[in-house]
Design a protein that fits this description.
By secondary structure, the chain is mostly helical. The termini are far apart.
């Protein structure tokens, strides 16, 4: 998909440095993929906050179970 966007040069140059990319297209792909990954992690974090993981065994009980095997 072709997109026209107005982004200031300083932002693009800084993004190119951090992405270690030599092209604007690749820089934007990297930046967008990183943004999407970050948002998915935030969603996962919120899901875990609202429904925390529950552990049925203590650390000592798990160690003992592992030693028995």
């Amino acid at each position: 998909m072709k997109v026209t966007a107005i982004i200031d040069d300083k932002t693009i140059k800084e993004a190119m440095i951090y992405s270690k990319s030599s092209t604007i297209t690749n820089t934007l792909k990297i930046a967008l993929n990183e943004y999407i990954r970050l948002q998915k992690l935030k969603d996962l974090n919120n899901a875990i906050k609202s429904n925390p993981l529950k552990f049925n065994y203590s650390a000592d009980e798990i160690r003992n179970l592992n030693r028995e095997r």
